[in-house]
Amino acid sequence: MSGTTWRLIDTGALDGASNMAIDEALLDTFDPGKSTPVLRLYGWDPPALSFGRFQDPGEVLDLERCRAANVTAVQRITGGGVIYHADELTYAIVCAPQHLPGETTIKESFRFLTGFLLTFYRELGLPASYAADMPAGMARLGRRTPFCFAGRESYDILIEGRKIGGNAQRRLRNAVFQHGSIPLLDRVTTGVGFLRERPSGLNRSVADLATLGVNIPEETLKKRLASAFAGAIGGTLVPSQMTAAEGERAACLTCGKYASGTWNGDGMEA
Questions:
Q1: Which of 55, 74, 105, 111 is most buried (most C-beta within 10 Å)?
Q2: Which of 66, 95, 148, 255 is flagged as catalytic?
Q3: Catalytic site residue 148?
Q4: 118's torsion region: left (phi>0), alpha (psi -120 to 50) or beta?
């Protein structure tokens, strides 16, 4: 892993369908034996909802409310609960098992691939820790809920006992995909409003950078995030663009899958 070169792709802020299509395209076109591993940074414009690959959007989302607010819901290629994406910095990682330093389990690789987030938050002056590393009783683990930020898993990141962002991984035989969110502003209340069942008390159990006193321009945050990633993996990030094959695959997925009401739920067009 040490000394490996990674591609850094910043696609900027895109709509939900395009974002999910690009994530899947980067995974689909990745050749474990030949491709350079990827760190992608992106945002969401307009805001959108994403739901996990094992969720039924009609069961967890108030689709009528989504339509009335003109908020698109798109399915992710990873599991987990609903996330409302607005005013956040999002990352995606595509690599092969050999790019990981000897991890043999999903949990081990997940801990390694989220390590840069701990560095990132701590360098912002925030006391970030994994939920599993908190003193007993401070973080109830294993609570899976329809809304991502309401649950707590071992390697969720907590700051002063409050969960910040969410991360999810998809493991294939010869490839690893992971993505996650870094909330810049508090948009949880808005997101909860699109759920059929709305958890309470989230304002006391979740966090975002602005609420924690971090008000740094997004471009600066991207640079700091990339630096934390390079340091954590012991490799080099080289700014890159999507290849023609990646772009063509993403366009195909956008039109044929992610902009489809059939794929995203009951009539939810992107």
A1: 74
A2: 148
A3: yes
A4: alpha
